[in-house]
Amino acid sequence: MYVGDLVGDDYINILTMIAAVVILLASAGISLKYINQIKNDKATGELTGECGDDTIQEFNNNLPIGWAVTFFSCNYIYLLCIYWISS
């Protein structure tokens, strides 16, 4: 049986649906991975001390590289847009 008989000659829709399913499965898998990680991991690290009067302590962790790259990239794009608009 020829595939074109079932779906016609429009392969773009087939590729789009396959990509949507792949994205959905990847999102579900990554979400489940992080949900299980949140459930099972214990907090480790050095506590900084109390911050002010609220007796809340924080962990002394480094800034994740991805967050820093995203922050500086967004600021760079923002400044490029401001420069482009003003010129």
Set down the secondary structure blueprint.
Blueprint: H1 3-7, H2 11-40, E1 47-50, E2 57-59, H3 65-86
Antiparallel strand pairs: 1-2
Structure description:
The chain is mostly helical and 87 residues long. It has 2 domains: 1-41; 50-87. The chain is 66% helix and 8% strand. A two-stranded antiparallel ribbon has the order 1-2. Strand 1 (47-50) and strand 2 form a beta hairpin. The longest helix is centred in the N-terminal third of the chain and has 30 residues, at 11-40. It is flat, with a radius of gyration of 24 Å. It starts with a helix and ends with a helix.
* Cα-to-Cα separation, first versus last residue: 60 Å
Largest sheet: 2 strands, antiparallel
Series of secondary-structure elements, N-terminal to C-terminal = HHEEH
Compute the number of structural domains.
2
Report Rg.
Answer: 24 Å
Strand order in the sheet with the most strands: 1-2
Helical percentage: 55-70%
Shape: flat
Number of helices: 3
Strand residues, percent: 5-15%
Summed over residues and divided by their number, the pLDDT gives a mean of: 84
* DSSP summary, beta strand count: 2
Residue runs with pLDDT of under 50 for 5 or more positions: none
In terms of structural class, how would the helical and strand content be classed? mainly alpha
